[in-house]
Amino acid sequence: MTSLLEIKRLTTEFQTRDGVVHAVNGMSLALEEGETLAIVGESGCGKSVSMLSVLRLIPRPPGRIVGGEVLFQGQNLLTMSEAQMRRIRGHRIAMIFQDPMTSLNPVLSIGQQIGEGLELHLGMDRRQARRRSIELLEMVKIPSAAQRIDDYPHQFSGGMRQRVMIAMALSCKPQVLIADEPTTALDVTIQAQIIDLVKILRDELGMAIIWITHDLGIVAGLADRVQIMYAGYVVERAEVRAFYRHPRHPYSRGLLASLPRLDANSQPAGGRRSERKLTPIEGLPPDLITLPTGCPFQERCGQVVDRCRQENPPLRDVGGAGCAAAQVACWVEFDERGGAA
Asked: Which of 28, 38, 74, 171 is 20 to 30 A distant from 137 in Cα terms?
């Protein structure tokens, strides 16, 4: 069975004065119809660049896609003409960009910006596009949508601007929605509202979602599967529940250990307070111009062995009795509880 979207060994580089930045290094993934896949990793790990590469929005120069395939319904997006890509972007594959404060055009009204895609991709006239734009703003819970359709981005709050971005992305009912950290600049209450809204719209429209984030705290209730990236490489893949129960890669366990927990300082009846300190991941990510020989996580890993310094581990299947199948790129064998075997 062919996946809706399949990425094979995608490699993207940027030419700089200091050398070639190896931003994405052989990334692969498969996205099925209707599922939500979370791509997780710290800033600079290649999450956003990989998805911009999928839509061929990497600025050239300095960026270039040097290898791989991006198959959407069996067609390779990387070999399509620019005219063919324009028919796919915003229509069949849509993207919510990272910063709603700067992603909207400040000199065009909200209605003009939403209506442009409707006229271009669906052939609506201006009156039809305006009516549909009001419906989309109502769908994403913008109050008084008919009155606000002619307002400009600066007249909306950050949360409202993000809702407008979602309305624009969903205007043509895409089959795939890429959400690039859409809640990063918002307070936690608005974050929760945006996430709930996306989940509702996903279920109503039946679209597949790729959710890019550095925050594992929001992934558990949103995604079906999770893919962890580090230094441009995929280091772990798993179903979400299995990942939280049994994180395999040392980097994945470090990310989870750095999350605050509501039960960390709970006090059991008649017992002592259980205090759990957050555990940071020591050190810094590697220089993407001069990647180390071997595993890119070796300098920050507490279980490093000689082979880690000599050879970069490929993704391999792992699993066991009572443990869902997953993939991890690590030379160290781990038991089902995540401890070194």
From this structure: 38
